[in-house]
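Sample entry (155 residues):
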Amino acid sequence: GGGEQVGGGGGGGGCAGPGLAGRGNLGRRFTRSGYREKTVHKLAAAGMGDNDQVDRYLAGRLAAAAAVRPAVFIVLATFGTHLLGLVLTGFVVFLLLAGPTTTVSRRGEARQKAIAKMLPDVRDLLVISVEAGLGSEQAPERTGASAAGPLTAGA
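Predicted structure, serialized as tokens:
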């Protein structure tokens, strides 16, 4: 599971752009607390668990939802209600509403696979460090320095 704490240093940029950095309170105001907690868990699993990233993601989702109506209008005005216009409209709506969630889910899955692949090596490094005489505080520090990756990012 994603054992990272919210507020810790999650790597990488957020899904929402830097232009949404000051709009975290907006995202907080328009989301239910249960949804926010679920989102925090998903973003932490993807390595993006700090509060600023969660707030930017929620504000970005809100902005994307607000952009659906104008986007549909623009696509239909440009391409008409012919098959191409309807297909493009569906694609744009899907992209706006499901794109960020899909991106976060894929990042989370990729990170979980990387952690699972790395876990045996990290365990072996911990055992070797403890057998070499390092204490309970020094062994994880040494392992984190030796094995770079998503599992040792907080060590």
